[in-house]
Amino acid sequence: MTHHTHTPGRVCPNCDGHAAVAVTLGGRDRSGHLRTITAHCPACHGTGTGTRAARHTATVPAGR
User: Fold this and answer.
1) Model confidence at 60, in pLDDT bands (50, 70, 90)?
2) Which of 6, 41, 51, 56 is deepest in the core (most CB within 10 A)?
């Protein structure tokens, strides 16, 4: 039986698919844990996929 192959999803060109990263704040809290924040890619909003939907949703002026 043959299997259907699916095309791979688009990867965001800005973050290369690594949409969320942990950034250290340069210190530790009182219990010794490293303080970090999560930063999301501003282009794909943390999804890791390209902006394909935004390209296809262009509006067409009325009357054309």
Assistant:
1) low
2) 41
Q: Both ends of the chain: CA-CA distance in Å?
A: 48
> How confident is the model over 3-39, as pLDDT tens digits?
777 766 788 888 888 888 999 988 898 999 999 999 9
- DSSP readout, 14-49? TTTT--EEEEEEEEE-TTSPEEEEEEE-TTTTTS-B
What six digits make up the tokens of 23?
Answer: 């950034």
How many residues are recorded in the chain?
64
What Å distances lie between residue 16 and 37, 48, 56, 60, CA to CA?
20, 7, 21, 31
Single out the residue of 43, 39, 35 nearest to residue 12, CA to CA: 43
